[in-house]
Amino acid sequence: MAPAPPRLLVARRLTPAATERARRDFDAMLAGHDMTAEEAIAAAAAHRAEAMLIGPKVRLDAAAIGRLPEHVRLIANSSVGYDHMDAAAAHARGIIVTNTPDVLTDCTADLAFLLILAACRRAHEYEALMRAGWRRGLGLPDMLGVRPSGKTLGIVGMGRIGRAVAQRARGFGMRVLYHNRTRLTPDLEQGAEYFASLRDMLPHCQILSLHLPGGARNGVLMDEAAFAALPRGAVFVNTARGSLVDEDALIGALTSGHLFAAGLDVFQSEPDYDTRFAALPNVFLTPHVASATMETRDAMGLRALDNVAAFAAGRGPLDPV
């Protein structure tokens, strides 16, 4: 007699492919919406779930972890970031936490480069001009952007995504600098120049892009002094986490003209972001969609389910954090 499939709570909406697999391979309770932490805790208890598949709306702080039923043994995050939960508190209760570290590297790097190009080339303003009907030609000195090709790009956080951005930058003839907790080996650096100190790197960065986790570990990285350390006319891009940035300082740097432009996919308060950014013509905005392709969102859900399946089979999780 085959063993019973593992009991799984899916506390967020998944793509059709991942939803089909969850129904087929697990004793799954599937939410019809993205649950809150309280909803997920109650549903896990009602379903007697052994595993939970969650997203960022299930914010599991230490107190919420403490209220999880004893039968929950695995929390599978269908994303790379897990700053929406207290992983240490989960580990202290013997609960395994997993994420999906490899599947969204290329799409996040692609969007980061979209933001770099759009911010440098004033894409928001050009788009607005066309939507308004255009009708008046532009002269030689009008609405000029800056050329991204050949610029010096600083990358903060040279993990998988940072290295993928560096790979794309080389195609644009960029000089690549990076700051990381540790220096990479030469085969991973691929000619990128290491700075042990972020503040030492910033004055050299004509474009700066963030690619590191948010949360308490890193705190606010880009404050007023950090933005002031960038050369005048620099471009700032963030596809990492809004918590890394003092948004008042960023708005000040943009309105003063110290920064030429910014490309932003993440914000301190999502989705209720600071709408002062929307009023600035030199900011290109996207709504936290770095992983939002059909291929990657399928892969995120399926990889989270791979972790549940491996745990249930006694093989151990594939991507423990």
Number of strands: 12
Class of the largest domain, according to the CATH hierarchy? Alpha Beta
Instruction: List SSEs in N-to-C order.
Output: EHEHEHEHEHHEHEHEHEHEHEEH
Q: What does the overall shape look like?
A: elongated
Structural class comes to alpha/beta
What is the rounded distance between the termini? 34 Å
On the 0-100 scale, what is the average pLDDT?
96
- Strand content is 15-25%
| Helix proportion | 25-40%
Largest sheet: 7 strands, parallel
| Number of domain modules | 2
Q: Counting H and I runs of at least 4 residues, what is the number of helices?
A: 12
What is the CA-atom radius of gyration, in angstroms?
22 Å
CATH architecture label of the largest domain: 3-Layer(aba) Sandwich
What's the CATH topology label of the largest domain? Rossmann fold
**Unreliable parts:** none
Key words describing this protein structure:
321 residues, five-stranded parallel β-sheet, 2 domains, 12 helices, glyoxylate reductase (NADPH) activity, D-isomer_DH_CS1, 16% strand, Rossmann fold, seven-stranded parallel β-sheet, D-glycerate dehydrogenase, alpha/beta
